[in-house]
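Make up an example, fold above all:
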Amino acid sequence: MQQLPVPADPGSLLEGRNRRSSGILARRLQFDPSDKEAMSTWDTTENFHFFDVFFLAFNLFLGLLGVLTLVVGASACPTS
């Protein structure tokens, strides 16, 4: 088995789950659970947090550009 996907809620304590699953697999597959190179894990919750913050900042930037565009357009029109 190459990959074992384990879904997690954002903000959950994934480190404890990784230690428990590493201990179970270590007993079953006979490797040292403290060996970091025996089993690798990839915490996607960190990636999701990064993308959430990135796209929030991007949307704020685009909103600011839209407001500035409307302000410049309104100031260019002569009032009668």
